[in-house]
Amino acid sequence: MKTKKKGIIAAAFLIVIASVLLSVFSSPIFNGIENLRASEYTSSDIKNVDKTALIAHCAEVDGKTNSVSGFKEAVRLGADGVVVDLCFCEDGTPVMTDSYAEVKSSPLLEDLFKAMSEEKYSNTKLYLNIVQLSDLTKLNKLASEYDIAAKTTIIGIDADHYGLVTSDDSMIPFYLDYKLSASELSDISKGEFSVPDILDKYGASGLVIDYSQCSQDTVEAFDDYGIPVIISSIDNNRQLSKALLDNAQYVWVSDVQKARSFLNDWIHEMQSRFESSVEQSLKDLSTTKSE
């Protein structure tokens, strides 16, 4: 009887230890699985991702998450487009910050516009994430002065703030945050999707949708209408892989350095498969001729 009790106690002890170890190591293990290399995800129907653009928030430099240095660092790490948080001073001057309380000590957006005039940033897109809205007159003036409107997009406008920015207010194109309804998702699956009326109503140029609503059918539906869509909330390689297989063109990632490495591996894998396919075709052709 005592032996049996000891066995039960020992088993219970092991279960407790196992539970503790699992709770300690499960997150690193999970993250490791989520961030495998591209070769672990690529399938036989690997997609061409030459036109995929990686979008990332401005990198943190010297404790600041919005700055000219942070913009440059994000580009260095592999971003094709950089998100900068935007607020306005009382006189409408646009500044880079995610807090209205810090506008007086925040760097001017004009400083970033100046930096973006450098040739090496000629193909880099800028996404202005509006945290606090004001009159856009000075922003429009700067965009015109530095001829930067065509490579800049305003984002951060959710459903509660539709209409606060319209094409009459802004010379800079803007995208609206959007959540597809159940009926719209159903229509997409049936090939009966129609353009959301908010685009025409407010003069928006595109949409930002959450990764959870991304699918090949969704991407194709918007692409058929020529509506650019940013897929946001891409947190790991598994999600990035799915977005790429769904043919997403603009993906907003949380870690651009890892995403760029993953994308480079993907492209390398795609090129290797293409070269192997060409080599095999040449061999088959040579065999056919010899026969």
Brief synopsis:
With 291 residues, the chain is an alpha/beta fold.
Question: How is this structure best described in words?
Answer:
There is one protein chain. This protein has helices at 2-34, 68-77, 109-115, 137-145, 182-189, 197-202, 216-224, 237-245, 256-290, and strands at 53-57, 81-88, 94-96, 125-130, 152-157, 174-177, 206-210, 229-234, 250-253. The protein has 291 residues and is of the alpha/beta class. It has an 8-stranded parallel beta barrel, surrounded by 4 helices. The model is unreliable at 20-33 (pLDDT under 50).
The oligomeric state is single chain
**Approximate strand percentage:** 15-25%
Mean pLDDT: 86
Question: Which overall shape is indicated by the principal axes computed on the Cα atoms?
Answer: globular
User: Biggest sheet, strands in spatial order?
Assistant: 1-2-4-5-6-7-8-9
Tell how many strands the DSSP assignment holds: 9
Low-confidence stretches: 20-33
Q: Span between N and C termini?
A: 82 Å
Query: Which percent bin holds the helix content?
Result: 40-55%
The biggest sheet amounts to: 8 strands, parallel, barrel
Question: What series of H and E elements makes up the topology?
Answer: HEHEEHEHEEHHEHEHEH
Number of helices: 9
| Rg value | 24 Å
Class from secondary-structure proportions:
alpha/beta
